[in-house]
Amino acid sequence: MFGGISLFVLVGGSAGAQQPAIPGRPTSSADSGAAPLSLEDALREARAANAQLPVAAIEVDIARASVREAKAARSPTLGISSSINTGGPLAYTTSQGAAQVVGEASLLDGGLRRANINTANHRLEGAGAGFRVAQKDVDLAVKLQFSEFLRAQTEIAFRQQGLERLKTYTS
Q1: Which of 58, 85, 141, 168 has the highest CB neighbour number within 10 Å of its CB?
Q2: How far is CA 139 from the centre of its chain?
Q3: Hey, CA dihedral for 23, 29, 34, 38, is it positive or negative?
Q4: What is d(CA 147, CA 43) in angstroms, rounded to the nearest whole number?
Q5: What phi, psi does 36 have (nearest 5°)?
Q6: What tens digit of pLDDT does each residue of 6-57 get?
């Protein structure tokens, strides 16, 4: 359930070396002069760009609406309807009109409404848990990528130090 998350972390090169731009490859913020991307910034950007989080949030909203609907079913209902029929010409036909007001309230429902409310509440809890899982999946994916880039950055720095040391041996 890991969504497509891209994360770019800066890897510093040697001070005098210029790396050529590769078409189709994003430039790092070191090339553009921007500050490095922190873990919090990466998490914020990934959450904003992730497609699963809005879907999970909508599922929570739908579950909340189901709870409101189930609670509203406990209330009495009132319906009003009317109709008018006229015929022409008036000398040969009569006109009719009707109005109807219907009120309904259940005295006994055998616990069905309470069960519907409990079911809707459980669905709401499940949708909320699904949203939290989607958030944690995004966070985990970003943290894994971020730690991998930090490890690569450390490896590059270590190898650059080794190259600098080798250059001192040859000069």
Answers
A1: 141
A2: 13
A3: positive
A4: 13
A5: -65, 155
A6: 444 433 333 334 444 434 434 444 445 667 888 999 999 999 999 999 999 9
Single-letter code of the amino acid located at 109: D
Q: How far is Cα 114 from Cα 120, in angstroms, rounded to an integer?
A: 10
Distance in angstroms (rounded) separating the CA atoms of residues 19 and 11:
12
Return d(Cα 12, Cα 18) in angstroms, integer. Answer: 11
88 Rama sector, left if φ>0, alpha if ψ -120 to 50, beta otherwise: beta
Amino acid at position 96, single letter: Q
Classify each residue of 71-104 as buried b or exposed e, where b means 16 or more C-beta atoms within 10 Å of its C-beta: eeeeeeeeeeeeeeeeeeeeeeeeeeeeeeeeee
Long-range contacts of the stretch 39-46 (C-beta < 8 A, 24+): 39/142, 39/143, 39/146, 42/7, 42/142, 42/145, 42/146, 43/138, 43/139, 43/142, 43/143, 46/5, 46/7, 46/138, 46/139, 46/141, 46/142
For residues 169 and 156, what is the distance between their CA atoms, to the nearest angstrom? 20
Cα 112–Cα 117–Cα 120 angle in degrees, nearest 5: 125
- Assessment of whether the complete model's pTM goes beyond 0.85: no
More confident residue, 67 or 109: 67
